[in-house]
Design goal:
The complex is a heterodimer of chains A (340) and B (329). Chain A has 340 residues and is of the alpha/beta class. Chain A contains 12 helices and 14 strands. Chain A has a 7-stranded mixed β-sheet with strand order 3-2-4-5-7-6-12, with helices on both faces. A 5-stranded mixed β-sheet of chain A has the order 9-11-10-13-14, with helices on both faces. A two-stranded antiparallel ribbon of chain A has the order 1-8. Chain A starts with 8 loop residues before the first strand and ends with a helix. In chain B, helix 1 (5-30) runs antiparallel to helix 2 (55-62), helix 1 crosses helix 3 and helix 5 packs parallel to helix 6 (160-171). With 329 residues, chain B is of the alpha/beta class. The termini of chain B are far apart. Classes of the chains: A alpha/beta (340), B alpha/beta (329). The interface between A and B is large, with 42 and 40 residues. Chain B: Its cofactor is thiamine diphosphate. Chain B: This is Pyruvate dehydrogenase E1 component alpha subunit.
Chain lengths: 340, 329
């Protein structure tokens, strides 16, 4: 009997840690610093196993001093090191945003390109597990709005590893947002999408390129991270009713892959944009504006958006489920717009 | 402590250069801003924070640094930049917003970056301290003995960045020296009404590090305190805070009406000018003659004049250059 070689499957967090480990092996100037990145391996597993491999000089637990350690990463990057600093929850950016947007994002520009900051700022995003208003946000656009940082948010374990490798090798500051639900952690709802095939060898996935996750001809659904997962789920349900949805996983917010979005809308003539971030002034508005500017007359129906309805994330389960878009909401929204 | 003659004359020349630079800048800044002051008018627009009177802090410690040591500086950076050896022409051109400037006109006077001598500054109070921490974290990782000096004003000692950075530097035993320039005012608010301790070097024991106070804007005392701190930290004996009591002759920025300042304060400070004091010391000690010092003054002033000429004669950036340098290729 012939045996087929089984594909190696990894969770999102292991894919992320593996990319970091492989770059650390290659380049002695790559190091990690942040809260609980050492023995704990990152609260969301992003640095799992790294301390044992590389020791405390290269996997550095820090005090609760985000301004100091993110600022120190900036200072080290200016010297040519390639630090990876972890901001445990994106919600915590309030205590250190000055270092992020006034320094990390602006120094390369203010120096006329004479100073490069080859650093990665990793941070956990996402709700859906009742962690309430200060630990559940998905602040994509708060970062993507500010010039000078690449902002990426991969969905699949394959992309997490490939894009982390790209981020570390990039000469620009990269904000690498990983979704808690896609890390594949044992202490959360295990989502099927958080486990996937990841090659053992090192590889890159480019930053700034969206991915067509499912081809279709009737409607384009643009999502990112968990919204991509839900869009695919909705697309399967829609397919049974004869509606063929194309699902685009943005993967990168900055740079934004406008071309892939426009091409898709020119084919499907309908657009739904789904975001786990707040609705107003956010990613859904940006993607909609791109299509309105470049492909308005290709649209059959007005653009639709699903996002957090401009309220802080509520704690209680029924309310949180109500405000975060899900597969059912996407399904219903597509049905409604197609039948308009 | 016997200060070597060549160090004394370097400090003197650098203070003269720095003061003359600021005096020229003060004039250039006012071009196009009279009779009515308009902050956005003239060849040097925007805010302008000058350092006249604060030179001892810069030269006293930079006398102990090499090009491989890092200096970070705040919104009042010119004296630090000059003492660290930043390219004077490119620096002046940057302040004039010219394409030949350090940042091709994208930074301006508060945002000067010269990686060739490891100098940077920024307009956010306290924010440069963590960058200095990162520079010496790198030195430690690479096994060099480079040190970093973060200059701040006394107002920044009340910022979170100050305390977070000193804790981190002490925890990781990094060769960081924070120089606090106490010029008495955070814009208009006096140190007495903003700071719970009399002097910020007294905060050093909170981090288990060395602290030293330099009184009366004395460049030689600053040199000596800095020598102790730099030698100690370079030898791996941990960070330090030096607070120097200094003078700010001018307003917080040019155009500051200074209504908060007692009448005659600046004049009485000028009577104790550190440049004159150092000059008199060197003359009394018969280290140089009046003529020799005048000649050296002319040389550094000429260097400043040439830098201003370079800046004025340089081209403006093309408007669309604004779109470049957001990302490295």
């Amino acid at each position: 009997m012939e045996t087929t070689k089984k594909e190696r499957m990894l969770t999102g967090n292991k894919a992320m840690a593996e990319a970091i480990a492989q770059e650390m092996e290659k380049n002695p100037e790559v190091f990690v610093l942040g809260e609980d990145v050492g023995k704990y391996g990152g609260i969301f597993g992003s640095t799992e196993g790294l301390l044992g491999k590389f020791g405390p000089d290269r996997v550095m637990d820090t005090p609760i001093s985000e301004t100091a350690f993110i600022g120190a990463a900036i200072g080290a990057a200016a010297e040519g090191m390639r630090p990876i600093a972890e901001l445990m929850f994106v919600d915590f950016h309030g205590v250190c945003m000055d270092q992020i947007y006034n320094h990390m994002a602006k120094i390369p520009y203010m120096s006329g390109g004479n100073v490069k900051l080859p650093m990665v700022l990793t941070t956990a995003v996402g709700g859906g597990y009742n962690d309430a208003a200060q630990h559940s946000q998905t602040l994509y656009s708060s970062f993507a709005h500010l010039p000078g940082m690449k902002v990426v948010a991969p969905t699949t374990p394959y992309d997490i590893k490939g894009m982390m490798t790209s981020a570390i090798r990039d000469d620009n500051p990269v904000v690498f947002m990983f979704h808690k639900s896609l890390q594949g952690l044992g202490w959360m709802d295990l989502i099927e999408a958080s486990v996937g095939h990841v090659p053992e060898e090192s590889y890159t996935v480019p930053l700034g390129k969206a991915k067509v996750m499912r081809e279709g001809k009737d409607v384009t659904i643009v999502g990112i991270q968990m919204m991509t997962v839900y869009a695919l789920e909705a697309a399967n349900k829609l397919a049974k009713e004869g509606i063929d949805a194309e699902v685009i996983d943005l993967r990168s917010l900055v740079p934004l892959d406008r071309e892939t979005i426009i091409h898709s809308v020119q084919k499907t003539h309908n657009l739904l944009v789904v975001d786990e971030d707040y609705r107003s002034y956010g990613m859904t508005a940006e993607v909609s504006a791109v299509v309105a500017e470049e492909a308005l007359y290709d649209l059959e129906h007005p653009i639709k958006r699903l996002a957090i309805p401009d309220v802080p994330i509520p704690y209680s389960r029924p309310m949180e489920n109500y405000v975060i878009p899900n597969a059912d909401a996407i399904y219903k929204q597509v049905k409604a717009m197609i039948s308009e | 402590m016997e200060i070597p003659k060549e160090k004394l004359i370097w400090m003197y020349e650098t203070m003269v250069k720095s003061r003359y630079f600021e005096e020229q800048m003060e004039q250039a800044y006012m071009e196009g801003k009279a009779p009515a002051f308009n902050i956005g008018a003239g060849p040097v627009p925007g805010e302008m924070h000058l350092s006249n009177g604060q030179e001892p802090a810069a030269v006293g410690i930079c006398a102990h640094l090499t090009d491989d040591d890092t200096v970070t500086s705040p919104h009042r950076p010119h004296h630090h930049a000059i003492a660290k050896g930043v390219d004077l022409k490119k620096m002046t051109a940057e302040i004039f917003g010219k394409v030949t400037g350090l940042g091709k006109g994208k930074g301006g006077h508060m945002h000067l970056f010269d990686p060739s001598v490891k100098f940077s500054c920024g307009g956010i109070v306290g924010a440069g301290i963590p960058h200095a921490v990162g520079a010496v974290l790198t030195a430690k990782k690479r096994g060099t003995d480079d040190v970093a000096v973060a200059f701040i004003g006394e107002g920044a000692a009340n910022s979170g960045a100050f305390h977070e950075s000193l804790n981190l530097a002490a925890l990781w035993n990094l060769p960081l020296i924070v120089v606090v320039e106490d010029n008495k005012y955070g814009i208009s608010v006096t140190k007495e009404s903003s700071t719970a301790v009399e002097s910020n070097d007294l905060r050093a024991p909170a981090y288990g590090i060395a602290g030293e106070k330099v009184k009366d804007n004395d460049p030689m005392a600053m040199y000596e305190a800095s020598k102790r701190a730099v030698e100690r930290t370079r030898a791996g004996e941990g960070p330090a805070i030096i607070e120097i009591e200094t003078y700010r002759y001018l307003g917080h920025f040019q155009g500051d009406p200074e209504l908060y300042r007692p009448e005659g304060e600046a004049d009485s400070l000028r009577e104790k000018d550190p440049i004159i004091r150092l000059k008199n010391y060197m003359l009394e000690q018969n280290l140089y003659t009046e003529e020799e010092l005048t000649e050296r003054e002319e040389t550094v002033k000429n260097e400043v004049d040439q830098a201003f000429e370079f800046a004025r004669n340089s081209a403006d950036p093309a408007p669309e250059d604004a779109l470049q340098d957001v990302f490295a290729e």
